[in-house]
Design goal:
- By secondary structure, the protein is mainly alpha-helical.
- Helix content is 60%, strand content 1%.
- It starts with a helix and ends in a 19-residue tail after the last helix.
Length: 414
């Protein structure tokens, strides 16, 4: 059985088990078995768009006022999403819109997993049915659409890099963070990569300037979490909650001060790792670059709800390959990354154990944040490790060349 066939079989088994649970236990109870906090009515994040269409129909700007939303949330998405309002859209269409998002996500999953190994298939299925990924499905969050577009970008990148930028630019207009996936362009074809990367950055800069006021409004309307979230600011925000902002600045400062330390450790490890071997690249190196860059970039910018961990799925096939076939340091770091990554993806389900496993929510959050920071640190390593040799050399993290001892002449050669 090939890896792709194994993945398809396990996927079907997983979907069948979930469907059976929905029928026998009910919608809310099934999600809660995974520890996922359910929002009803269903597909809450897709509903923000359909409710926004209803608010716009009565002359309101849903980025500022969205009274049709059951939770009275503003529609905290770029205005380009309001292009959907040209359709006869209302909350009665939420099921269809959410289902479309999920189908696009699954299509993206199929695009990048076509050559997966059997070990990679096992890891990927475990990640796919994790609470973090299923949180995005339960909400029908539009990150699922961005996942499809990034997957299409990675699929096309191995065929025509210029054409591949089209879905990536589309993803950037829908949500800015897919910009970090452009790191996948860090290839050996220096001139083309530089041109395309520069073009993407220029496009993103112009887009930000053109929509700057909207982006400020969206940022102010976006809820930032502590539980079910990751990011450099999460722990500081949690510490500051009991007493307003007291204690938070110092905690945030200490958190951000650790970033240069982690970067230095990544640089040190990269100096001792061997070269990025071509035999270890099973066609998934671009996915690893994109997934790690999205995680690290979003981690630095702000807190992110855990469903954004879905982009780490792109890293799993290459990590699974390296955990079996790579030089020793990279092999062990890949194994550690897979284990810690799974812990981060599944940590939501551990909230049900507060009072049993954890004494307090602080204990749980400290555990979860430890996992997230390890994933961030290892992401910095893998990002540095997969840089082209010319960039590594400029950064001074190119692996030292092995010392070659001159061969001693044989007696017969004298």
């Amino acid at each position: 059985m090939t890896g792709r066939q194994l993945f398809a079989l396990l996927f079907i088994i997983g979907v069948t088990a979930m469907t059976t649970s929905f029928v026998s236990n009910g919608y809310k109870e099934t999600w809660e078995r995974w520890g996922i906090p359910v929002m009803l009515p269903y597909f809450a994040d897709a509903r923000a768009i359909t409710a926004g269409a209803e608010s716009a129909a009565i002359g309101l700007d849903p980025l500022q006022e969205n009274p049709a939303d059951p939770w009275n949330r503003a529609m905290a998405y770029p205005r380009i999403w309001q292009g959907l309002f040209l359709l006869p859209l209302d909350q009665g269409h939420t099921l269809y819109l959410g289902a479309t998002f999920i189908v696009m996500f699954l299509s993206g999953l199929a695009l990048f997993s076509w050559r997966i190994s059997r070990a990679g298939a096992l890891w990927l299925v475990a990640a796919l049915f994790s609470p973090a990924v299923l949180l995005g499905v339960e909400r029908a969050n539009n990150d699922l659409v961005c996942f499809f577009l990034v997957a299409l970008f990675l699929y096309l990148l191995r065929r025509n890099a210029a054409i591949a930028t089209v879905p990536l630019l589309a993803a950037i207009t829908l949500k800015l963070f897919p910009l970090f996936a452009a790191f996948a362009l860090a290839k050996s074809q220096a001139r083309q990569s530089v041109y395309l990367f520069t073009g993407i950055i220029a496009f993103a800069a112009l887009y930000i300037l053109a929509t700057f006021n909207d982006l400020l409004l969206i940022s102010s309307n976006t809820l930032h979490g502590t539980f079910y979230a990751y990011g450099a600011s999460v722990w500081g925000r949690f510490v500051g909650q009991p007493h307003g902002t007291e204690g938070a600045p110092l905690t945030l400062l200490s958190a951000y001060a650790s970033i240069p330390l982690l970067a230095g450790v990544a640089w040190f490890l990269c100096r001792r790792a061997g070269p990025t071997g071509v035999p270890a690249d099973d066609g998934y190196l671009d996915g690893l670059r994109a997934g790690m860059a999205i995680y690290a970039g979003s981690f630095l910018l702000n807190s992110n709800w855990d469903y954004r961990l879905v982009f780490l799925l792109f890293t799993i096939p290459q990590l699974a390959s390296w955990s079996a076939h790579a030089e020793p340091l990279v092999r062990w770091l890949s194994r550690i990354m897979l284990i810690v990554l799974m812990g981060s993806l599944w940590s939501i389900s551990m909230t049900r154990g507060i009072g049993l496993i954890w004494d307090t929510p602080r204990d749980y959050l400290a555990f979860d944040e430890t996992l997230n920071w390890i994933v961030f640190g290892l992401s910095l390593f893998f990002i540095t490790y997969t840089l082209p040799d010319r960039i590594k050399k400029a950064l001074g993290c190119e692996p030292a060349a092995p010392r070659i001892t001159p061969a001693q002449p044989h007696a017969g050669d004298l």
